Amino acid sequence: MMIPALRFTFRSGAWAPLLVLAGHQLVMKLGWRSEADSLLHFAGGLAITYWISQLLRQYGNRIGIGRDSLGCRLCALACGVSVAAVWELAEFFSDQWLGSDIQRSLGETMSDLAFSTMGACVVVIHDFTSRRSKITQPMTKPVAPKPISQAQDSSTRGQGMS
After folding, report:
1. Does a structural domain hold residue 162?
2. pLDDT 10s digits, 69-94
């Protein structure tokens, strides 16, 4: 049971946060931290929320929140924002206990949280609007109107507005 769950996890979205982490490592090696920090936090919020929303879409019924419900979307948003907060706490503890210099200021930390939250919101809004449009689409193919024959067309020509 564990292997199919892991297989599904990587097929349905685990690649997204892993890609952001790889991008983060590249940015740090190139020395572009200040230029790319906001973008990376936005992408991180987007990626983790996407992964969580995919997991909830698959397993939402098992944990009692439904697969396509508003609760499922709100849970994905809450989890994505929570991961961003835990990430910032990890940066804080790294600065305090390990002597790193990750968090430069309170303003930067709040900006990081804001961009992560915006990324999470983008996923949830996109999911909500794309799901809603699929629900409101008709289930059958539209029927093309039948062409009017020439006999019907000539008999109705004189009945227009006079």
Report:
1. no
2. 777 888 889 999 999 999 889 889 98
Domain tally, the chain = 1
Single out the residue of 110, 93, 115, 102 nearest to residue 34, CA to CA: 102
Amino acid at 123: V
Q: What is the tens place of the pLDDT at every residue in 106-147?
A: 888 898 899 999 999 999 998 888 766 554 444 455 555 666
11 domain residue, yes or no: yes
Domain that holds residue 43: 2-134
- Whether 143 is in a domain gets the answer no
Cα separation, 2 vs 14, whole angstroms: 15
Query: Coil, strand or helix: which one is 21?
Result: helix
Those residues with Cβ within 8 angstroms of residue 91's Cβ, 6 or more apart along the chain or in another chain: 100, 102, 103, 109
Distance of CA 30 to CAs 27, 35, 38, 125, Å?
5, 11, 16, 33
Residue 127 burial by CB count (10 A; 0-12/13-18/19+): exposed, middle or buried?
Answer: buried
94, part of any domain: yes
